Amino acid sequence: MIFFDTTLRDGAQSEGVSFSTEDKLEILKHLDRFGIDFVEGGYPGSNPKDKAFFKAAADTPLSRTKLVAFGSTRKVGTPASEDKGMQNLLEAQTDWVCIFGKSWDMQLEKALQCSLEEGLNMVSDSVSFLRSQGKKVIFDAEHFFDGWKNNKAYAMSIIGRAVDAGAEFVVLCDTNGGTFPDEVEEAVSQVISKFDVRVGVHAHNDSELAVANSLAAVRAGATMVQGTINGLGERCGNANLCSIIPNVVLKMGRPSNIPDVSMLTKLSMFVGEVTNIEPDPKLPFVGRSAFAHKGGVHVSAVLKDARTYEHLEPGLVGNERRILISELAGTSSMLAKSKQLGIDAKKVDGKEVLEKVKQLESEGFHFEAAEASLELLIRKLRGENVQPFGLEGFRLFMDVGGPSTISEASIRVVDLNGNVEHTAADGNGPVNALDRALRKALSKFYPVLSDVRLTDYKVRVIDGKDGTAANVRVLIRSSDGRSSWTTVGVSGNIIEASLMALMDSLEYKLMKEGIKGTPNGER
């Protein structure tokens, strides 16, 4: 199987995505390390960034991936040798190029307003010209399945012209994303039976069938699948390679050039970071929730044999099994979660912890999203020393006299030996000021806390009918540059809820550093 990634081109057409040249180079390197066969770098004639990328990529060593420049067939009425788009493809200096041409007669008549014969000539001329210039050509038959359904003879003639002109691959595109898997399988089978050429598929997800259509094409004999990481793409996105690759390689057993599919989850997360679009936690295979178990019956069964509720071993795709703790959990879930957190399950009273969790969740806490707070809670209930500092008081001030509002927090903390630190810090809001003041004070006793940074802050009103008097849940995600963790606080006062989550965050960091003290009571 050949995997063709178009994240840098089709994926860049996602709403909200804009790659810099550096972004594209980094993604290219990661795709190369993972073992993707072809990476479509973009359309070198469309914008300065893509031109700069191809120039920089020429000096980037690749061990597994072949970089591909993308473009269209020549324009109507223009010889391929004089077409600007053809010249741009040559200037990209890639061995491989991918060009698309319309195979739906309606598109030629309505969009390009040219004859069907000219459409055929555009394909022949473009592929032949690029081949004469020493390029290897992948031909994308745009709107192929719509054309196949509307005018099968003409759609097949387009494929024939590309094959006769020397295309290495012909790729059948479901450009509008409206085709069903049975139609894809039938069309691909007909193309393969008629033409001596390697066939690929390029599916869009407008009907939520891009992955299914890609797999149908593979069943019919297609040997190339085009798609994007995390399903990025215009409108509803492209076929998601993070689902296609494990299905094709691990489940269908097709050989590929990917050396280690277990790197897939890291690749998904990396692309999510670069695009600033966090992957959907419910993505199959690579999503954070893909192997998460919450119901007590499910957890009990999974602990006996994971096959009861998992279709695949998570480690095969680089993911991990997660046990979620909530009011739906059972004692076995709690013990399993304790073990997962590194706590000796034999020394945990699962029933006691579970009752406490259920009580707190009834008040608005949410531990499945805040595992650091859960671990602190379990250790407190075991009687472990986990809080090496105390809060003696704090004050918040708001200065609204100038053009902008400035917040200042004054805080007083005490360490294990009774030493008191009283300090203040300002911020761009009361929570930011409180966070800075708390870390500033505690860093005097525990310098390791100077590395901790708040990376995400979420507030949710628990019961909206109470209006401004409603309890709020605050979730804080913190990082020390090496790992990250989430803590939770709940109160009718947003500042108090925030402080609760902030203190848990710092307490958790100290616990992981082996710094412990006397428990400061229960919540």
Describe what this molecule looks like in 3D.
The chain has 523 residues and is α/β, with parallel strands linked by helices. It has 3 domains: 2-259, TIM Barrel (Alpha-Beta Barrel), CATH 3.20.20.70; 292-364, no CATH class; 389-512, Double Stranded RNA Binding Domain (2-Layer Sandwich), CATH 3.30.160.270. 39% of the residues lie in helices and 20% in strands. The protein has 17 helices and 16 strands. The protein has helices spanning 21-34, 48-57, 84-91, 105-112, 116-132, 144-150, 152-165, 181-194, 210-220, 241-251, 264-275, 296-304, 331-340, 350-362, 371-381, 430-443, 494-512; strands spanning 2-5, 38-42, 66-72, 96-102, 136-142, 169-174, 198-203, 224-227, 292-293, 322-323, 389-399, 406-415, 420-427, 453-461, 472-479, 484-491. The strands form 4 sheets. An 8-stranded parallel barrel has the order 1-2-3-4-5-6-7-8, surrounded by 10 helices. A 3-stranded antiparallel sheet has the order 11-12-13. A 3-stranded antiparallel sheet has the order 14-15-16. Helix 12 links the parallel strand 9 (292-293) and strand 10 (322-323). Helix 13 (331-340) crosses helix 14. The protein is elongated and about 85 Å long.
Short description:
The chain is of the alpha/beta class.
Average pLDDT taken over every residue: 90
Q: Please, how many helices?
A: 17
Task: State the CATH superfamily name of the largest domain.
Answer: Aldolase class I
Number of domains: 3
Helices and strands in order:
Blueprint: E1 2-5, H1 21-34, E2 38-42, H2 48-57, E3 66-72, H3 84-91, E4 96-102, H4 105-112, H5 116-132, E5 136-142, H6 144-150, H7 152-165, E6 169-174, H8 181-194, E7 198-203, H9 210-220, E8 224-227, H10 241-251, H11 264-275, E9 292-293, H12 296-304, E10 322-323, H13 331-340, H14 350-362, H15 371-381, E11 389-399, E12 406-415, E13 420-427, H16 430-443, E14 453-461, E15 472-479, E16 484-491, H17 494-512
Helix pairs in contact: 1-2, 1-11, 5-7, 6-7, 8-9, 9-10, 12-13, 13-14, 15-17, 16-17
